[in-house]
Amino acid sequence: MTEIGDVGFPDPGSLFRARDSIYSTDLLLAAAVHLDLFSRLETRVMDRHAICSALGIQDRPADVMMTLFTAMGLVERRDEGYGLTPLSRSFLTRGSQRSLLPYFASLGARSVCRSMLSVLRTGEPASWADSSQEEWVSAMADESFAASFTAAMDSRGAYFAPLLAKCLNCSDRTRLLDIGGGSGIYACHLVREYPHLEASILEQPPADAVAGSFIETMGLSERIGIVAGDMFDEIPSGYDVHLLSNVLHDWNRGNVARILARSFEALMPGGSIAIHDTHINASKTGPLEVAEYSVLLMYSTEGKCYSVSELSELLAAAGFVDIEYLSMKCHRSLITAREWRSG
Fold first, then answer.
1. Is residue 159 within 8 Å of 16, Cβ to Cβ?
2. Which residues in 56-70 are b (16+ Cβ under 10 Å) and which e?
3. Which residues are bridge partners to 244 per DSSP?
4. Cβ proximity of 172 and 140 under 8 Å
5. Domain 14-134 matches domain 143-286+301-338 at the CATH topology level
6. Looking at the domain that runs over 143-286+301-338, which CATH code has it been given?
7. Are 297 and 304 in contact (CB under 8 A)?
8. Judging by DSSP bridges, how do beta strands 175-179 and 241-245 pair with one another?
9. Residues 222, 188: contact at Cβ < 8 Å?
10. Cys staple from 37: which of 31, 130, 139, 166, with CB 3.0 to 4.6 Å?
11. Angle at 246 (CA atoms; ends 266, 12), nearest 5 degrees
12. For 114-153, b where at least 16 C-beta lie within 10 A, e where not — what string?
């Protein structure tokens, strides 16, 4: 079946998954070997609060963990709690004659596995390429680091930006603000797709300079401007569509709510918001590839892959209406909504 946004390239899904799932096995090791989660679930169904209490872990990583194990077919939802499946009952509990826990335990001393255990217990991110998120944010103030990190994200964007331009309907929009837009690669493809559209990139220094150089290289400086600023402080007004591409997954729920509220306040009347990202499904049972990627984000940032239901709730709380979901290639997706104010 042809997916929305197919532009004729070979499907790189397996390559994205190889990179994005890199921490998911260490989460399984930590939960099965060090926390003995599955043996604890053998005798009773537990909700997430009870799991956190019994294991001494925090809610955000527990949420990511149980979503992953649901997607893997290791646990299943029962009423408001989680119970074992035949797969985990047979092979991941200490009482089973077929238990593979000793086999998994042989890798339990991996440094990343122990670091994952710390993330579960504290709720604090461990590292992004061996740096804490706070150090990463500080490092982004260095122009050379900002340029190299942006280039890394652009290698992904080079594939997804043309797909987004085919999926996001801007035929009735005139001014787009790409919030936390990095180099501006997504805005570049959107203005090329819609000749009437003008855009700006909202980025903090020195990433704003990186964006300016990239847009100049693309020959689009006359149609795409740069706004230096912090999305947490103020989002500039005068735009009828806001784009958040691969932004919200880096931040905790409170900060996501803050960004969405500022977007709603800044949008022109009747304007729209577009959230381009990887999203867990509404029932939080998968897709597996997104649940695996969520582990990387949970481990390295204060965020995770948010579910369609979670973002719908947050968008509605901010005041948005007409919330819609669109599936794209490689488990990327687009959530759109419209600004609405009475009177």
1. no
2. ebeebbbbbbbbbbb
3. 275
4. no
5. no
6. 3.40.50.150
7. yes
8. parallel
9. no
10. 31
11. 150
12. ebbbebbbebebbbbeeeebeebeebbeeeebbbebbeee
Alpha-carbon 116 to chain mean position: 18
Q: Of 230, 242, 249, nearest to 297 (Cα)?
A: 249
What the block records as the tokens of 105 is 């335990």
Which amino acid is located at 269 in the chain? Answer: P
Residue type, 9: F
Among residues 252, 240, 136, 247, which one has the least CA distance to residue 182? Answer: 247
Write out pLDDT tens, residues 85-106: 999 999 999 999 999 999 999 9
Q: Look at residue 5 and tell me whether its pLDDT is greater than 60.
A: no
Q: Among 1.10.10.10, 1.10.3720.10, 1.20.1050.10, 1.10.260.40, what is the CATH number of 14-134?
A: 1.10.10.10
In the chain, which ranges are continuous DSSP H helix? Answer: 13-20, 24-29, 37-40, 48-55, 59-71, 86-91, 101-105, 111-122, 133-139, 143-167, 185-193, 207-217, 253-266, 288-300, 308-318
Is it the case that residue 132 has pLDDT exceeding 80?
Answer: no
Is the CB of residue 87 less than 8 Å from the CB of residue 95?
no
Q: CB of 72 within 8 A of CB of 125?
A: no
* CB atoms closer than 10 angstroms to residue 274: 24
pLDDT in tens, 66-80: 999 999 999 999 988
pLDDT band at 57; cut points 50, 70, 90: very high
To which H or E segment does residue 75 belong? strand 75-78
Average pLDDT over residues 156-178: 95
Q: How is the chain split into domains, by residue range?
A: 14-134, 143-286+301-338
Q: Give the pLDDT mean for 246-253.
A: 97
